[in-house]
Amino acid sequence: MRQLVYTQPGRVEWRDSPGPELTDEHSALVEPLAVARCDLDAPMVERDLFPGPYPVGHELTGRIAAVGRQVTRHAPGETVIVPYQVSCGHCGPCTAGTFAACATYRAPIGGSFGFGPMGGGHGGAMADLLAVPAADHLLVTAPPGLSPSALATLSDNVVDGYRSVGPPLAAQPGADVLIVADAPGSVALYAAAVAVALNPGHVRFVDTDPDRVQAAAALGADAARHHGTWPRRFGEAPITVDATGHPDGLAAVVRSTARYGHCTILAFGFDPVTPVPLTEMYTRGITVHISRADSLRYLPRVLKLIATTAFDPLAIPTTIRPWDQAADAWLKPAVKLIIER
C-alpha cells in the first residue's frame, strides 16, 4: 500500500509498504476517507520533534474494510471516526474514562496513531489502510448528515478546543471566556466556535494573526488583534485559554484569569521549564490545566454539541485537497488542512 511518510526535517513523501493485517480478533482495518492535519503535524515534520521515518496523520474518518472475528459492534462498509489515541477499554485508566492514559498501549507520548515510535508505532492515517486495535471499544460510528471531511477534524483539534471551554462552562454556565492566541493553527478558533455555540456571557478572542482575528469575528466572538510585546494582563475572565505558545503570553493569560477561575493551556513549548506566575495562581486560587486532548473521552460530547447547536467544524478557514496532492499540501500554510479521497 501507499502511505505518506516523514523522511527528514521538512520533507514528507509517498512510500510503498506492506499493507497492515488484522492484529488480532478484536481489531479492524480502516480505509481513510478524509484526514485532517493537526496543528502539531507540520511542526513535527519541520522541526524534527519526533524521530522518523514514520507515516504521518492522526485525525481521520474512514470506512471499515475488515474486522476480526470478535468484533461485534462494527462491520465492513461502516463509516467511523478513529480517535487518535490508542486505548484498550478495560485497563484501570480506561474504565475510569481517562483513555489517553491507557495502561495497555504505552508509549513515550502515549499510544497514538501518526507519531511513529514515540506513539507506539501504530501507523499513520495518511495511508491506504490503518490497523485499529480494540475496534469495538475505540471506533466511533459516524453520525449521518456530516461529511467525512467535517468528521475528520473532530478526533483531536476540535476535541482539544472543546475541552478548553466546554467543561469549564458546564461548571460555570454563562461565564465570560477569554481566548488568547499566537501559535498557528486551528485549535484556538475551534475553542472560540465551541464557546459561542454554548452561549456564554461574552467570548473575547485575541490573536496576533489578522486572518484568525477576522475568522473569530465571523464565528461570533469579540475579536481583536494583539501587537507587540505581551501585556502583564488582559481584562479578566473566569474562563481563559492560552494558545500563545509563548511564556510571556501564558503569564498574561494566567494573570487575566479571575479569582478561582480556570485557565487551559492549548499551545505549549518544548522547553524543560516554562515560567508561570505561581504566586498569583496561589493567591487568586486559579486552576491551570495542561494536557493532551482525551479524544475518545470527549468525542461523544462534541458529537452531541454538533447535533444540538449551530457548531460547524468547517466554519473556520478550511483548505481541502485531494489525496494525490497530500505530499505537496502537507507543509503548505493553512489554518486547517484536510486531505480527502
What descriptors fit this protein?
Quinone Oxidoreductase, Chain A, domain 1, Rossmann fold, 2 domains, seven-stranded mixed β-sheet, alpha/beta, 11 helices, 341 residues
How would you describe the overall organization of this protein?
It is a single chain. This protein is of the alpha/beta class and 341 residues long. It has 2 domains: 2-153 and 314-340, Quinone Oxidoreductase, Chain A, domain 1 (Alpha-Beta Complex); 161-290, Rossmann fold. Helices cover 27% and strands 25% of the residues. The protein has 11 helices and 16 strands. It has helices at 41-46, 92-95, 135-138, 148-152, 154-171, 187-197, 210-219, 247-255, 278-284, 295-308, 326-329; strands at residues 2-8, 11-16, 28-36, 54-55, 59-67, 79-82, 130-132, 140-141, 177-181, 203-207, 222-225, 237-243, 257-265, 287-290, 318-322, 336-340. The strands form 3 sheets. Strands 3, 5, 6, 7, 8, 15 and 16 form a 7-stranded mixed beta sheet that branches. Strands 11-10-9-12-13-14 form a 6-stranded parallel beta sheet, sandwiched between helices. The protein has a 3-stranded antiparallel beta sheet with strand order 2-1-4. Helix 8 (247-255) links the parallel strand 12 (237-243) and strand 13 (257-265). Helix 5 packs across helix 10 (295-308) and helix 6 packs parallel to helix 7 (210-219).
